[in-house]
Design a protein that fits this description.
The structure holds two protein chains of two kinds. Chain A is of the alpha+beta class. Chain A is built from three helices and four strands, in the order H-E-H-E-H-E-E. The radius of gyration of chain B is 22 Å and the shape is globular. In chain B, 51% of the residues are buried. Classes of the chains: A alpha+beta, B mainly alpha.
Amino acid sequence: MALFRKRPDLEQAKARLSQLARANLVDNIGPGQEVTVDRELDVTGEVCPYPVDAALQALAQMRPGQVLAELTDHTISTHTVPAAVERSGLGRVLRIEEQEPGLYRILLQRT
Amino acid sequence: MALSWQALLGLGAVFGFIYGFLLQRGDFCFTSAFRDLYAFGHTRVLRGIVAAVLVTTVGWGLAMTAGWAGPDRLWVPPVGWNSLIGGFLFGIAMYIAGGCASGTLYRAGMGYLQFWLTLLAMGAGYYTFLRLFEPVLKPYFFDALQLAGPITLYQVLPLPPLVTALAGAGLILAVLALLLSPGGLAREIAETLAFFRQPPGQLLRQRSWDTRAVGLLIGLVATIKFSVWTIWGITGSETRMTALAWSALGGGEAVRAHPYVKGLFAGYPGLVFGPEEVLIVAIIAGAAASSLLNGTFRWRKPRLHRLPNAVIGGFLLAFASRLTPGCNIGNLISGLPALSVHSMLATAGIATGVYVAWNVSHRRQQALLRAAAREAEASARVPVRQLSTT
């Protein structure tokens, strides 16, 4: 059957899933790598869509290479902010740190 | 076999807890599903909803064919313009509140104080609806806008329920295969199945489950619930809870004689806190337990300037859920698998409502982004020496 001509690669699927499982603990630059933050943005207490809007707006005002650190306690933002920033072409995710339960710091670099 | 009232109360607690746990694990936000699709083509939650609808549809078709449940358990309201208009208003309310009926509950369990306020505002919305139902809404809204009685494709198509369900699910899969390509669809299925190969201990600690796997589990739970008890709803139960509060606060005879309240409590032994209300409380408890286990629980204080979102959004969520009738769970997770024409229209209304609300606020955001880009460009032209002295 055409649908299954190419067998699904379960190992690749598992690797992708394990990446998904670490969605709140992303590190794209390697552990121990120091990052100089150019702008801090505290959006704790805000829910969707404001953490996304704030990150996009702040990145748009920054220069290529500069780093934005967004502090949020809205858990789903650890999915939506990276997706919006990368799809907008404004930046890339360097790291998502968990400061304490339910509090995240998303490091974004303007591209 | 008819279950005792106590057994139903127990089932309400068990199913509610499981639903709350799953909603929290997937961060299964229906507002995010639609808004993020329009805003930046992000379909993380939407894929989970599609999985839930597919599994529930096939599960219920199987349950009705096997005789575990009769078609009388399906929730199929009459069809009218109110299905579309109510759904549209509900979509706008979801956008304003930043959460849907189920999202408000699971986030209340995660410690979001803003969504506890949304729940209170929803109570005001249900109460206002009940007060306006007989003098205004029934004659000038429901009766005026009704087009036909209840319609489900299960009645329209002369086929065994499982065949009809498989045809519906097959149609959705065919559309997905066209959108994603057959290979893409196969990869989605493989990734969903691979989720379950992870060790249980790891799964318990994970903060973020694959939404497609969560959708599949919700579909399985909804099938078991349908087979042993009933469909899953939220805002009907919350309206009952509001009627109980109104009665306790002095409503008395007016509440007992209210035609809408009478309909809501049909099958109940009076105006009492029943199994479906236990389910609502258990959703909050399940989400709290899940978030305590995976480290996402936190008492989150809202920003003061967002309180109008909770109050206005919550009020409108509740009011619109009664106008439609049904919320995102009633219409998407229970109504679509019932192949109910009302829920198809309501779903279209919800999707359109979120789109319009997003489009209005998106214009403002795009303008801000353009202004920000111009500002960044202008400051880049300023000599660096001058910048360092300011």
